[in-house]
Amino acid sequence: MDTLAQVHLASQYLATAGKSFLEAKSDDSHTNVGFFSEDHTLRTWGLDESGTYLAFQYDHFSLNWVSKDKKETFTLKGKSHGEIVEWISKIAVESKLSKPYVYDLHYDLPYSNEGSFKFGDPNSEELQKLTNLRTLAQNALEFFLQKENLESDIRIWPHHFDTGAFVVLNDGSGKSIGLGLAIPDSMVNGHYFYISGYHGHDGIDTSTFKNLAQGEWKNDGFKGAILKTSGTTEKTAVNFFQEAFSLYK
Q1: How many domains in the chain?
Q2: Which letter does DSSP use for residue 33 in this model?
Q3: Which of 122, 142, 166 marks a domain boundary?
Q4: What is the pTM assigned to this prediction?
């Protein structure tokens, strides 16, 4: 299993911690995670009143449990799904969380951690590349939102594993904008930035939009703009978001 797939699977333990311990939200946002560039971690929302959280640490390929009383690390290399669930369950009880930990996904992933699966020893260069991409996305989105005076959480959604922001425009147009970083899929064979506009739940048609200086418009299935991350700098990504956003406005 490649490194991206292993990291995506590892993030599901964070998603299910959110599902286990937090009040459910209709948009599923209790299961999403944040990326923190200072220590290269994905982290859950605070799981209790004191801010306890479960993290995935890219550099050491580990899960970290952080509470006011303890910080414990669980290296994933060679570990089975059952061993990981047992560790999280045990440490949640020790931390006196009010509910039990249950690993229960309500969506399908293209790979499985069941049966004889064990996490491997991921390629350190690949891990670094994935860390760099998350950092690039986080910084570009923060800069774009600040520059355009827009407000949104920047979160990673565990199903599709995209770093995303979502903004409802306050200009009376009824439009909203979703943007972020996507992992390789059937549309692009590689990581890519995306931005798309909506009227209600309907994607805005882009067929009449002028060409972009960077990236390209799509209008078949996904309606929006994409920019491949290969060779992309933070400045290029921000310019891409800004140019596409100006056409939606």
Answers
A1: 2
A2: B
A3: 122
A4: 0.95
